[in-house]
Amino acid sequence: MTIKELTDYLEKIAPLSYQEDYDNCGLIVGEANAEVTNVLVSLDVTLEVIDEAIAKKCNLVIAHHPLIFKGLKKLNGKNYIEKSVIKAIKNDIAIYAIHTNLDNVTNGVNFKIAEKLNLQNVSILKPKSDTLMKLTVFCPIENTPRLQDAFYAAGAGEIGNYSNCSFKSTGIGSFKPNSVATPVIGQNNKYEEVEENRIEVVFPAYLESKILETMRKNHMYKEVAYYLHRIENQNQAVGSGAIGNLSEAMTKSEFLAYLKNCMNLNVIRFTETKSEKIKKVAVCGGVGSFLLADAKRQGADAFVTADYKYHEFFDAENEIMIADIGHFESEVYTKDLIVEIISKKFTNFASYLSEIDTNPIKYYH
């Protein structure tokens, strides 16, 4: 099992194209073709985490937060980032980051928070646009079933909870092969009309090359008539935050106690709200203030997130409870999520949860 085989699988679940522009996901340190011995999963990468990887004989650290966000011009050990990179390289330890791409998918970071809170009917809080494409292709009637099945197998035709989605209509296609053509249907230099189907399928934009390769491999014609559109539809399977319902409405004090217990919290910073009961809850791991308007618009009674600034709390305007639980605390269970994803697929190496508390913030009780 190579590192690339493992990370390719992770990137099927959380494609790198879904990361935010500022992010730096993927293989940060190490050789993709190196064989995996064992894997250490951590929220952050520090010198202590690298030492833990050495002790547990792990040659791959998978972290939620990238060790390197900005380009490094020098590697001389002047800070923890450079020291960690140097130590990892010296000990043949690769470092991989799966950050906002894992935030932005269903069953990712935010859905893990929703799971911890036992929320029901969970969906993406703010779906993304411009992540979908549509392929329109024309083919003979008899070629249609094979082509459709191939598209579905390649990942096209999935819309929400539905698969094998496509549209077809029948018409007449016309063409005239020239003297050097080798037509499957018709004769050279002779005008031809053929009854054809127009097939339309939607697919994630990152699959474009795979879908086109599938089309050419399974189409009867050597010269395929098709066109692509990038569509502006919101992708309900990709986006920021999550929202769902508690199984039962709670009073504000009951909800805060429930939240503290479920997420194992030391402290919660929160705003008052005119709502007497909390039922619908929005969540966002890490910095989430950019989603407050979306949480309000969808009627959330509470918004669980982190890293709120003093003046941003006023934006609640008594309409919603903002519950700031801390950055580390909101994302710490991402480690469990990553181990679950790996363990369900691979059994030929060990995946360890890091025992290092990488939270730089401490609390005085």
From TrEMBL:
Q: Which residues span the membrane?
A: none
Binding residues for a divalent metal cation 2: H64
Q: Where does a divalent metal cation 1 bind?
A: H65, D103, H327, E331
CC terms in the record's Gene Ontology section: cytoplasm
Q: Which UniProt keywords apply?
A: Metal-binding
GO MF term (any one): metal ion binding
Q: Which Pfam families match?
A: DUF34_NIF3
* NCBIfam families noted in UniProt: YbgI_SA1388 (TIGR00486)
Its quaternary organisation is: Homohexamer.
Family assignment from sequence similarity:
Belongs to the GTP cyclohydrolase I type 2/NIF3 family.
What is this protein identified as?
A: GTP cyclohydrolase 1 type 2 homolog
